[in-house]
Design goal:
Bound molecules: adenosine-5'-triphosphate, magnesium ion
Radius of gyration: 17 Å
CATH architecture: 3-Layer(aba) Sandwich
CATH class: Alpha Beta
Helix content: 25-40%
Length: 253
Amino acid sequence: MSQELPSPDVMIDLIKVSKVYPPDVQALTDVSLTVRRGEIVFLTGMSGAGKSTLLRLLSRIEKADKGLVEVAGIDVTKLPQRQIHVLRRKVGMAYQDFKLLPERTVADNIAISMEVAYRAPVFIEKRTRELLDRLDLAKKYATPAEELSRGEQQRVSIARALANFPEILLADEPSGNLDPQTTALVMDLFHEHNRKGATIMIATHDRSLYQATSHRMIELRFGRLRTEPAEAADNGAPPGDTAAAGLTAVEEV
Ligand SMILES: Nc1ncnc2c1ncn2[C@@H]1O[C@H](COP(=O)(O)OP(=O)(O)OP(=O)(O)O)[C@@H](O)[C@H]1O
Ligand SMILES: [Mg+2]
């Protein structure tokens, strides 16, 4: 992956961000948050607290109404529509509702994120098979997405998010439909991706994902971050265990 300029150490920066869904659903209020390169951050909070909304603002599925949203050095709120591909190449997102193309095969769904980055077909096939293998889905390569169980669809959505080695991975309830054993496969992939330098934010209700880790956990309550902004910024697990400092791009296998 070519990278012209060294990326800044701060990979996600939100300053006083608010989001209202029309007509008057206040989904996020004054959220400030800094995530550094190589961190894994767990985003928790009750149903409706605003977790998915926050991830959607980072990937510009939705636009903030107020505040600054900076992702990998890109001012996301000011990014013109025609430049969104620049952001999408840096950010991989596994959606809570998967967003797969139902009639296309598993392989086609995963290939999409690599095709938009002009990856060679031989690379795409190798990477797709590797991810499916790791996620225990090798036999589903040519299966249409609509014939998959929800847990299988979830893993395909995760594979698609990871396929192009994104610098930032956003995973929305990645274990929502998975048993503990399959969840472990997913978390292994995430940790491996993180060790290569990626920054990861995971929205989850699943305490087992973060309970035994030293990674930062932040909580949204009714659209507000529970921690004070200063604490949130200072409280982070150092990116040291990722050995990521200084890397400018996620290293490929
Ligand atoms: N497209 C939308 N239009 C209007 N309101 C929305 C929309 N998406 C989300 N909301 C509302 O915004 C608030 C935050 O929703 P969000 O999906 O971000 O919560 P969440 O923390 O991800 O919840 P869950 O744990 O159930 O996934 C909720 O009150 C929700 O009803
Ligand atoms: Mg959600």
